[in-house]
Write a structure and sequence with these properties.
5-stranded antiparallel beta sheet, 295 residues, alpha+beta
């Protein structure tokens, strides 16, 4: 028997723009049905079997339907994770104030853009980020699907969860190379999982870290496979938006949207968004993805 959990959303929350804020909704164990505007994923709390949740939005609230009846503690954990994934507790008022004074960016506040969908854990986001580097999106999807299929725990409906660090740490680099087809990332994924599972690296602490930006980036880059691009993208998922996380796609988008189709230097791109100060990375991302969702 299923049960429903309802979470009221902030006035400035836009479910559709959050779901389609970047590619995470298309990476397992997320599933997204754009016809019904419903997000499905498996949540795993490590003891009872994982639970599948369907997440939709109506009447200024998020509705969560679970695949089975849940106790009070488990229901609280589900609500906590959904709040985290959809950034319901993020305060974007300063960001909206900064962009509202610019005619080209006033739409951001008006449409409630800026919340970037994330996973329940920093570990999952970090693994996925490593899987986005130096490859096609199709290959990213294949690697992430492989991790879920091979190492995830099964919900009652047959869907699987994202594996935790302990599950990944049990496998050697050869497994990630041969079974997951992760290429050069194989030893990096194995080492990351071992560091997290052993407690020698606490990536979840990055969410509340008060380290200066440069020191936090340095700590992120201590993870093999994480360079500036991955670190600056991960920063956005923990609520720090200083970095632009430029890659071939964002550079091409900027050229098309902001530079009459001409290639622009990274310095020029940085100058363009510098007026948004510590919000510049989020301003850039909203600018580049504005047409992903119809107003």
């Amino acid at each position: 028997m299923s049960m429903d959990i309802t979470i009221k959303t902030p006035r400035d929350f836009n479910f559709r723009r959050t779901v389609l804020s970047h590619g995470w909704c298309a990476l397992q164990p997320f599933e997204f049905d754009q016809q019904s505007w419903k997000v499905v994923r498996v949540l795993d709390y490590g003891q009872a079997a994982p639970v599948t949740v369907e997440i939709a939005s109506r009447n200024r609230a998020i509705n969560i339907r679970t695949s089975r009846q849940m106790g009070k503690k488990a229901a609280g954990a589900i609500e906590r994770d959904v709040r985290h994934m959809f950034r319901l507790d993020d305060d974007l008022r300063e960001f909206y104030q900064v962009v509202s004074g610019d005619p080209d960016f006033s739409w951001v506040a008006h449409e409630g853009a800026g919340r970037l969908l994330r996973s329940p854990t920093v570990f999952e986001d970090l693994v996925k980020m490593i899987c986005t580097t130096n490859c096609s999106w199709a290959l990213t999807q294949k690697m992430v699907s492989g991790l879920v299929h091979e190492l995830g725990r099964e919900s009652a409906d047959g869907r699987k969860s994202f594996p935790d660090a302990a599950a990944m740490a049990e496998r050697p680099a050869k497994f990630f190379r041969d079974q997951i087809r992760s290429g050069y990332r194989a030893p990096y994924l194995a080492e990351l999982a071992q560091r997290v599972a052993s407690g020698s690296l606490n990536v979840e602490a990055w969410l509340t870290s008060e380290l200066p930006l440069n020191e936090l980036i340095k700590e992120m880059k201590s993870v093999k496979g994480v360079g500036n691009y991955a670190a600056e993208n991960l920063l956005k998922l923990i609520g720090r938006y200083d970095g632009l996380a430029l890659d071939s796609w964002t550079r091409a988008q900027f050229a098309r949207l902001r530079n009459n189709g001409r290639v622009a230097s990274d310095k020029k791109i940085f100058r363009f968004y510098s007026r948004f100060n510590s919000w510049r990375g989020l301003a850039l991302w909203c600018d580049m993805t504005r047409d992903w969702v119809e107003p």
